[in-house]
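User: I'll paste a sequence; please echo it back and then give the predicted structure.

Assistant: Echoing your sequence first, then the prediction.
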Amino acid sequence: MKLTILYFASLREALGLDREVVEIPSQVKTVGDLRDWLRVRGGAWESALAQGRSVRAAVAQRMAAPDTELTPDAEVAFFPPVTGG
């Protein structure tokens, strides 16, 4: 399945890119699976998407939980939590 992945703010800076189109393996079915799969790349990926690190996700511009299922050609965005004041 092909996905477009967008990275925002500190994630974009850490990874050195703002978007990529990837072909994911069939076992990657949820947002949590995708994050785990990306983290296995190592280096900046492992650090930026580390377990316990606060990273939010959206699928098709809707907030998504780790168990949100992925669909073909979906746009998935990862970003740090936003604080306001």
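The first helix runs from residue 9 to 15. The chain has one domain: 2-79.
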